[in-house]
Specification:
Distance between the termini: 55 Å
Structural class: alpha/beta
Largest sheet: 9 strands, mixed
CATH topology of the largest domain: Rossmann fold
Number of helices: 11
CATH class of the largest domain: Alpha Beta
Number of domains: 2
């Protein structure tokens, strides 16, 4: 297939499609973006840039025979790629008023860019979220939603930096390194072309309170985790998440003998990890098939049939109920200290044609959770799915202690050419009743890249999962 989108070979194209990367330098970051998003043939169309690296961008464009325009010298030429770099204007001390002033300027620039951007070409915004003491300000999420009313929000890449943070206080959850967002927008047939303010709750309930937990600072804002191979009974579940991930968060957000809940237990990853960490484990599971597997795995820890050598007796307890998470009652469990779960990613497991789905079919394994109409993963309407999922978590708040914590593992979704910012939308809805903490990214490095969109447009391979974190009021 001929590459009509840029000048890259197929081998050069593929690495850029990974949805996260280890940031090394601005030169490499900007060069890779300019090379990927500029046309195959040199022409009069320009690269538009706003930010503090204009000299570097001008040099990169010159080296690759691409026309360049700094935003101050822009005269309305046709734009084949635009980049707005806000990283130097947003720091850990940036407050909301300062950001809103910068946002207004950014949106004005984007309206100008929209008029000159060539059809089906891209705008990239480089922007961080900010932790300012106990307050968390998700500027990237806000900007993504606002600009999604003008352009089509197409994708994101997470830049994982090596910078180390020092927690301001051990009573505030502060991840130990940093990341920033590369947000990608396209001017296309689905772009509204009109900027409309998107209302949300991102800047409302966003100040942590002390809960008595002394954080150890052992969770970074991004991490690479390669799970151990799944055992025979675990591989039956189509979307299991690893015990190692649960262990990380349980050890950070709870103390020994705490009560840990997962309302969508699957094969019991959360419960197994919690029990092994010396916590009590609770949960519900809609599928009687998976509930039985989860219960058996927990029983083998609490009352092992054959004790392993040097195995310490486990005095923790577990309750795992075969029921719909929407019907959890106050009487089902004792007061909960921590909830960690990974809900269905909408109805994505019902989508045909995915490589992973094909492999599971070949092995005779289930490709979705169930065929039940009660299964959230079988809801086809996105807004209905979000509403039902939000209700599950709001209902569970009755079981949770004041000041306790929640972690929800999700990812943004691409479906039929559209991007659904599931992580942002879920956080927005939950912030009506809980407090936002910094998100953490689980970066996957053990999956083969697929050449989506090769030669035509940019479509990333989504290899990062959001670990959304909240505190109960």
């Amino acid at each position: 297939m001929k590459n009509r989108f840029n000048r890259l070979t197929s081998k050069e194209w593929l690495p850029f499609q990974k949805s996260w990367f280890k940031y090394e330098s601005d030169e490499k970051l900007l060069t890779e973006n300019i090379r990927f998003f500029c046309r195959a043939e040199p022409g009069d169309e320009i690269v538009y840039y706003y930010g503090h690296q204009s000299e570097l961008v001008q040099k990169i464009c010159s080296d690759h025979d691409v026309q360049f325009a700094h935003y101050e010298q822009f005269k309305g030429e046709s734009v084949q790629f635009a980049c707005i770099d806000l990283r130097d204007e947003i720091s850990s001390t940036t407050n909301l008023d300062e950001y809103l002033s910068l946002r207004e300027k950014t949106l004005d620039l984007c309206k100008i860019i929209f008029e000159s951007l060539v059809h089906r070409r891209f705008l990239c915004i480089l922007v961080p979220n900010v932790q300012n003491g106990p307050q968390y300000l998700p500027f990237a999420w806000d900007l993504g939603l606002q600009l999604g009313s003008l352009f089509s929000l197409k994708d994101e890449k997470i830049a994982c930096t090596p910078d180390q943070n020092t927690a301001s206080t051990e009573t505030i959850f502060t991840p130990s390194n940093k990341h920033f967002y590369c947000l990608y927008f396209r001017k296309d047939e689905n772009s509204a072309g009109v900027l409309q303010e998107r209302k949300h709750h991102f800047f409302e309930n966003n100040i942590q309170t002390s809960s008595g937990i002394k954080f150890k600072g052992q969770i970074p804002s991004w991490f690479i985790l390669k799970p151990a191979p799944r055992k025979k009974d675990e591989i039956l579940h189509p979307a299991k998440y690893p015990e190692d991930l649960v262990t990380m968060f349980v050890n950070e957000f709870t103390i020994p003998n705490a009560n840990v809940l997962d309302p969508m237990s699957g094969t019991g990853s959360t419960q197994v990890a919690a029990l092994k960490a010396g916590r009590n484990a609770f949960g519900t599971e809609l599928s009687d098939f998976f509930a039985e597997i989860a219960s058996q795995r927990c029983s083998n820890i609490v009352q092992p049939i054959q004790k392993e050598l040097f195995l310490t007796e486990n005095h923790q307890r577990f309750i795992l109920l075969n029921k719909d998470a929407r019907s959890i009652s106050k009487d089902d469990f004792p007061d909960i200290d921590y909830l960690i779960t990974s809900p269905p990613y909408w109805d994505m497991l019902n989508m045909k044609g995915a490589e992973n789905q094909a492999k599971r079919i070949e092995k005779g394994l289930q490709t979705n959770y169930s065929e039940s109409t009660e299964d959230l993963g079988n809801i086809s309407d996105y807004e209905s799915f979000l509403a039902d999922l939000t209700d599950v978590y709001f209902n569970i708040l009755q079981n949770m202690k004041s000041g306790s914590y929640i972690t929800i593992v999700v990812k943004n979704i691409k479906k039929k050419g559209r991007n659904y910012p599931f992580a942002w939308d879920l956080a927005d809805r939950l912030l009506e009743k809980v407090i936002l903490l910094p998100e953490v990214f689980w970066c996957q490095d053990d999956i083969n890249l697929a050449p989506y969109g090769y030669g035509n447009t940019f479509v990333s391979n989504t290899f990062h999962q959001y670990c959304l974190n909240f505190q109960v009021k």
